[in-house]
Predict the structure of ATP-dependent 6-phosphofructokinase.
Amino acid sequence: LKHIGVLTSGGDAPGMNAAIRSVVRTCTHHGIEVTGFYEGYQGVIDDNAETLDARAVAHIINRGGTMLRSARCAEFRTREGRQKAYDNLKKRGIEGLVVIGGDGSFTGASLLSDEFDIPVIGIPGTIDNDIYGTDFTIGFDTALNTVVDAVDRIRDTATSHNRLFFIEVMGRDSGFIALNAGIAVGATNILIPEESTELDEVITKLKTGRENGKTSSIVLVAEGEKMGDALFMAEETKKHLPDYDIRVSVLGHMQRGGNPTCADRVLATRLGVAAVEQLMAGHSSVMCGVRNGSVCTVSIHDAISRKPGIDRNLMHIAEIVSL
Ligand code: ATP
């Protein structure tokens, strides 16, 4: 293996830079040339790229976002688009591609590899943790800590004013962020798409809490919650609890930014090394992940076709402690 490509695609996540750095430095260690493509698959189609050496990735391990930038590229969804991308990879003499991104990015990578016989390796980078085959995705831990920090601040004002806060967090169709952060901030209710909750249950819990002396409450709502968003939930609750001082906070894109946590930097570094080693071993169409503390691989096909399950035990724990 003499030359590989690397790109970041889909939604950005803190720790993507650490993964790029790890891929580049592992290649340098093994005498492999690396080309970094800008703005995901768009950069491959446009041949917007440059050679990355060890120094090109200096001072980025601590930075959020991605130095290669990310994009959503409609053209890559077409066979013609992927043909252009493949032609550019071939022209540069690239023998394998590392794709850092989410399941959409892996679907594109898988198609490219199947159609044109170029090896691809996936590294899961998304704050949502919604990828099958890995216990953690890069960016999840940082996003959790950002949410916990933000909600702690809201709690200060919630307790001072006896308020009920509905706080909406990211996660797409998954409730990983809401469930884990919800436990960490001591939320009264955690509403996630994996669990069907009725409004009645939420209201009963809030009432019981007040009867038991609770003066303020935090309800964490995952953006994919099927009952509705935080604003809707707050409006519906107000109809049943008119004397409650209810506020809504949607945390939004702040959850995607910030310096990656130690856990995300270490994870990204481990997966970057693993991805290059997979290419060197002649493997393709696998995603590198981490399971029970060890680096593992899973077929890209499984990573994109299966859904990771929410930890029911965590739901149970949240229930026990949110009296
Ligand atoms: P995140 O979960 O953080 O949003 P993602 O990788 O799932 O990340 P997407 O926007 O779904 O984000 O995908 C990123 C890019 O991957 C798309 O813009 C497109 O270029 C490519 N892609 C996604 N789905 C496909 C597909 N079905 N076929 C080919 N390419 C695809």
